[in-house]
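Example record for the data management plan.
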Amino acid sequence: MPPAATLARLVLLEARRGGLPWLAAGCIAAGIALAAFLSQVALTESRELQLSILAAWLRACAVFLIAAHVASRTLREIDDKALEQMLALPLGRPSQYLGRLAGLAACGALLAAAFAAPLLLWAAPAATFMWGLSLACELALVAAAALFFAMTLVQPVPAIAATAGLYLLARSIAALQGLVGGGLLDDASLTGQIARGAVGAIAFLLPRLDQATRSEWLLYGAPAASAYLAVIGGLLLYGLILAAAGLFDFERKNL
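Corresponding structural encoding:
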């Protein structure tokens, strides 16, 4: 087995022994209970309400779990000098970094599969599969971001906060663009032009997470193949960019 694959397998074993599956099971149980409660108080469209609330809850829980897990295990390796011991082995830094990232992306894929399974009770299998695949790509991107920030900032709270900030900004940048360009600011003023330019530049640098893992797919059917592939391709491309940035930073570190 290649060294990177061995390291990825160790990451998966550590996630299993660290209680990540139990946390995922708790999130699923809480989401189903919340959806069942809301369905009892809804006057109409209880199925749609259940599905949309459960999908949004599971997506948020998956992002938080993978970000917290990546940051905590990476910083624990640094604090316990385990990372320095690994660097003493005859194993290149690219293999070590990419092996960790592959294992963390596999954790995200397993989380996505586990969180998509309960949605089969309400949604069509094809739409659920596309939602789960999109969530797996989204979690791989979050894992790459969390690993990069954990290696760079070397503190748990800033690393998780930076990952959450990047994710939330990428999720809400389209709405921010709509606010800026929808007459909220004077079109002719210098302030309005600067604000629109700044928001447009930020949106250009961020992934379109607002187009990924949408609850509408579960409610009204899968999106068009071209639009779906564009979303998945954008997520994978941005994940590769984050992986390259993290690998570059890891190569130049003097540990």
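Summary line stored alongside the record: Residues 46-79 form the longest helix (34 residues).
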